[in-house]
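Dock S-adenosylmethionine; give full complex structure.
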Amino acid sequence: MKATKKTASAGRKPRRASRLSEGTANVVFDYRLEYEGRTPAHAVLAGPKASPERVLSVALSSQVDRFSRLYLGENLGILRHLCDDPCVCGKVSLVYIDPPFATGSRLSARDAEHAYDDVVAGAKFIEFLRHRIILLRELMSPTGSIYVHLDGKKAFPMKVIMDEVFGPTSFRNFITRKKSNNKNYTHRQYGNISDYILFYTKTSEYTWNRPYDPWTDAHPPKEYHYVEEGTGRRYMKVPVHAPGERSGETGKPWRGKLPPPGKHWQYPPAVLDEMDAKGEIYWSPNGNPRRKIYLDESNGIPAQDIWLQFRDAHNQNVHVTGYPTEKNLPMLERIIQASSNEGDLVLDCFAGSGTTLVAAERAGRRWIGVDSSMKAIETTLRRLAQGSEPMGDYVRGKNGRARQPALFHTGELQRSFDLYVAEGAVPPTPPAQCLRRWVDLFPSASATIFS
Ligand SMILES: C[S@@+](CC[C@H](N)C(=O)[O-])C[C@H]1O[C@@H](n2cnc3c(N)ncnc32)[C@H](O)[C@@H]1O
């Protein structure tokens, strides 16, 4: 389903784009974040490109669609390289990124192996991310969306950067996510249990499949407290008019009644007649119409911009890869369902353990993942091949093997993908024995090593 909201500028004489929007969204805005070392957007776009080389191809025999790609390497050059790829540039329907948060930490996986460093700080961090966002915008399709996951320290400056690159009218939501269980904080401040996701779209015509949360005992459908005589169906009553006067059909009298002052009917009188004939209009004793909304036709509660149910690994049964900062898989599944359609291309250039890629694979989307960490690529490959594992150590034997293998997920790969290596990868080329180990992860697929 496509949203069809009008652009903010529709019908108005276009103003001249300000100097500040140069090279980005050609939008007019009159503020920006100033700091030392800002590179003009055109120079960001024109910087050096990577030349990734394909090192591995994995295909499930029954599938011929060979698109999804995993890149090992520094994402800046790879994004520029993708800007030259006609299969990718302007074709990415959804971007989700969960970059480092400038925490100053060196992060290791659960097996104590080094994963990545999160040491770029201050203005350098803002500029680092701004460069990637400028390039990501180029790669997005006109109906594309981008979700940028950040913590409370960096979400606010990056909101200003996103306004600059995409234009303030492309801002859709500032989503607050509950990231963990409540904390018994010893600091003299409130427990820090939230992080934030900035949701922007490239234009006002974007893919949108509204997500719903199910009714629960905690949120029963209280509003549906009327029961229809004869059918027993539960329903709620809502106004049949909406704010704003209209001169067309919806501003005309219906059944001898004009809409209340300052309002218009939600439907033309002919449609209201049809609804009334089907019994979908409730008439109050003093003759005022209300629309009936039936519980059995409700998809649940339309999702709002506070997400409480997508905490990262929070109990021993949650399946994890062991990669640090691994995000909640159902959260990525929600984002992918809401902002892309089957067959669409999804991109995550800070892929980590591959949560976005797995969610995309499950939902029948094509994907591109990029990460400069060898540990991230290894984790993603293992996850595609074998799935993830329950977090609790209690399922592991002394030799590190699962005691209850039945609890393990099976592999996630359903189609095929190619692995590329580019400049900036550490080590620059995975050693041959490493490539062979990766191939062995997919015994039932046909895998080719390119040397
Ligand atoms: C917060 S983690 C992403 C975690 C991921 N969302 C998940 O669910 O596992 C950030 C990732 O970005 C990667 N990264 C950081 N800087 C990068 C760069 N310049 N190019 C490519 N990857 C980078 C790190 O190696 C790390 O895996």
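Observed: The mean pLDDT is 87.
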